[in-house]
Amino acid sequence: MPSPASDRIRQEWLRRVEAEYRSSAITQQLTLWLTQLGASPDLIRDGLRISDDELAHAELSFATYAAAGGTDAPRLARETLGVAESGDGLEADIVRTTVDVFCLGETVAVPLFRHLRERCTATEARAALDRILLDEVRHRDFGWTTLEWLLAQPIATDVRAQLDRELSLYFRRLRNAYGRVRATTDVTEEEAAWGLMAPHRYAEIVDRTWERDYEPRFRKLGVDARNAWEAGVG
User: What integer best gives the mean pLDDT of the chain?
Assistant: First the structure.
């Protein structure tokens, strides 16, 4: 039986509620864009399902927060609930969101949530992580399937040119988000039981994901991502 939750645990699960709402909104926007582009109905249905998944994750995260003794409502910043149009055109915004959010973000989410789940014993937290981990595999696959579809369209040359220009920026954002802390201080047993992990573990998992997922998946699609990965340091 895990110890009573600390304020740090409550704040982390409240942050996750907010993050899941944000993911739902971003996925809804990407799905709308794919509809406007005339994408495969299968992709559109997958996007709609993922949006609903993210809302379920938010509900489970809030249940965990409440079980940990939290009483505040999530703080949802409206300006973060979606993706701003860049002015570069619909296709460019679709490519950017697909690769940045799904091919990169949802791919690393699979091992991240797997690690969070390993030492988790708090009932509500474990239920949330079980569902989230199961769904993240499908969310990851949605990103790579969408990119593969884009590369099979007449815009493929433009897509590859955009990746040449921007992929290093996506990698840099990812590594700044997850890889800034290298100190080896671990979480407490209580925190691990509630599904938290040490900050430096995030950086280690991102590095492993490059070798296990990013590099081979991009290579399979004919994209040499190594220069972008190396340029994305810092």
Answer: 93
